[in-house]
Amino acid sequence: GENVEQHPSTLSVQEGDSAVIKCTYSDSASNYFPWYKQELGKGPQLIIDIRSNVGEKKDQRIAVTLNKTAKHFSLHITETQPEDSAVYFCAASPGGSYIPTFGRGTSLIVHP
Amino acid sequence: EADIYQTPRYLVIGTGKKITLECSQTMGHDKMYWYQQDPGMELHLIHYSYGVNSTEKGDLSSESTVSRIRTEHFPLTLESARPSHTSQYLCASSDTSGSPIEQFFGPGTRLTVL
After folding, report:
1. Residues 7 through 46 of chain B touching chain A, CB cutoff 8 Å
2. Among A35, B28, B31, B85, which residue has the least CB neighbours within 10 Å?
3. Which positions of chain A have pLDDT values less than 70?
């Protein structure tokens, strides 16, 4: 089955800095890669996703890149703000599967 | 407003009690899921359903059971709660018509078994 590794487990940055979270996956059949943000006391919420036919996708301050050959994908947050502090999960889904495999999560702390 | 709801949000009970965690969604999604989230943040899939009268066990062995009698409702039951069941339980749903497979999560139920 699919295996997703996520690093780092904790990331501490100063407000205004950039943050990068990296994930690797094992199943070359995976073709959908969502990123979820979980704020304290809430369930995870999708913030951006990318499909395997695209190398990069941006939405304002967040971007995701995908390298299919190396089987890794990354989340980039620029100009971080305190409200970006949360736990971030990456996931991978093989085509035809409705069950994503999640990474272990990254706790991002943005210091004012 | 279309959403996914979980009740109760917090529950503290004694060992041996039977409990049911409720999950309902108003989005008409066919697929629903239960995850157990440990203090280290990791999400573990414990049950899922592809539609009415369909239930499957997930990757993490769980002593809980689920039912799916109605599309919008996916309750999780523990027949006899134990301290090892103390955890955060997250319900999610997804719609498989159209674009994939975004999961919508409820706010979670934090369960403490004394």
Report:
1. 31, 33, 40-43, 45
2. B28
3. none
